[in-house]
Amino acid sequence: MTDLVSLTGIRKNFLGVHALKGVDFNLKAGEVHALVGENGAGKSTLMRVLAGEIAPTSGTITLDGEVTQLSGPRDATSRGISVIHQELALAPDLTVAENIFLGRLPGVVNHAALRKAASAILNRLGFDIDPGAEAGTLTVAHQQVVEIAKALSNNARVIVFDEPTAVLANSDAERLLAIIRELRAAGAGVVYISHRLNEVFDLSDRITIMKDGSHVETVETAATDVDTVIARMVGRQMSALFPPKEGRAPGDVVVDVRNINRGRKVRNVSFTVRAGEVVGLGGLVGSGRTEVARLIFGADRMDSGAIELHGKPLRLSSPRDAVRARIGLVPESRKEQGVILEAPIRVNTTLAKIRSVTRMGFLNVGKERRIANALGADMRLKASSVEAPVSSLSGGNQQKVALAKWFHADCELLILDEPTRGVDVGAKSEIYNLINDLAKAGKAVLVISSEHQELFGICDRILVMAEGAIVGELDEDAFTEHELLTLAMTQSARDRDEASQ
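Now predict its structure.
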């Protein structure tokens, strides 16, 4: 295979900060080359250089064997380079077809011809998406497909995917990975950036590891393993990411969920969580786990059932009632629901317990700052100041702020929905330690995660859900992928069969 792209000795400095320190990277035709590393390792900066979004301080870019300089993103696109960022860049008020050909629309648009051309590309990808629909009305998965269609419409030969499955359901993620394999088979070169190492190993031909702006190593995927890659990224084996569970002693029942129901989304769900215990909710995406969390937090109303906290009935008409009862929820979508991105870290940290920093209606900014600084130190938050907006932080540090808010609220029950989604391996380990500390302090913790190894590493027991119901419970001696999926998939298939009869 020949090199489509070769980046040699790429350096990039931002106001004296060395974001890239002489990085080498090459991409061949017909391969998937994974780029991995912790948040801040320099992966996205390197790809922004490739996309023409920023100019390197020094180094060489070679395309098809010729040294070149990219004058901007439009120049890179014209040369067949396309980057599909984690934060999608569609114009929500324009149609799917208009988004696919955005930037190349004539003065007078033949909308019928435009829709026909868009349909041809979408059909090639295997998705039935209306090219006349407004992009803002699509699901995240379909918006992702439109971004890919846009790249194909530009005849892209180099396609960069930056965390493409971070917010996708498993079925949508599988279809996306299938599309990437088809692109590789057609001779395109694909750069794949992801914290999901299982996807990296399933998909890639080679892996380049970055750390602190430097190139660590490039290896053939078949010649390495997950533990080795993690060790090269963060300096320790995967098994060491999870803290030991010694010192956690489950006590009295904190929350007792009894036969709660909400349509077909949640069906007759019952369970308990004890003080000092971490209980997992496992199962397939769409099995009802998040819906259960929302009911316990008062974000949705139950059709029937009851919830007790410390043996007393809990009446929840809104999340405010849950907060008053000292129940916290870190939602799966931190940017939309977990934090206020443009507000300072200081403000986000005390939101759930604002009365602790107010007196007679006046905010004590000094006290708020001291609390935020103390929590930031405990959580190893990497930020220039607690006055910095949360939007300026990496994904892992944004998640730490979302957690800090509830740590300050001193919850009796903390519900964590996908607590490490989009978070690098090093930050994951720190979050696992924080969860372990909560349990050691006698708090009850309920964790929802689609990463089974995560559940196995931090939970005392796992409740498995399918089609809105709890279909089984796993103790630690039964923590295996086979046991969990057998419960989730067998019961899910059985329920669908019964519903169709």
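DSSP finds 17 helices and 22 strands in the chain.
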